[in-house]
Amino acid sequence: MVSRQTALDDPEMQKFLEENPVYKATYDQIDEMVPWFNFPGEGGTRVQKIITDQIQAALQGQKTPEDAMKEAAKQANALIQ
After folding, report:
1. Rounded to an integer, what distance in angstroms lies between the CA atom of residue 63 and that of residue 79?
2. Tens place of pLDDT per residue across the chain (81 aa)
């Protein structure tokens, strides 16, 4: 992904995107982007993974949403205390 609009507007870049439409998806979706939040501290990324894993477990029916939430809280609290 280019970092400047002038680079995106360059004719060679436009030709590349026409020839490789899969790369154009990034630019088509840019208005949908939101900042990524990470929990503070050394375990921040691990906390995010815990939450994601527990959400997946609930969505796949491996745990109830309540059990997944409790497990996520238990694991995350162990990392941030």
Report:
1. 22
2. 898 999 999 999 999 999 999 999 989 998 898 888 888 888 889 999 999 999 999 999 999 999 999 999 999 999 887
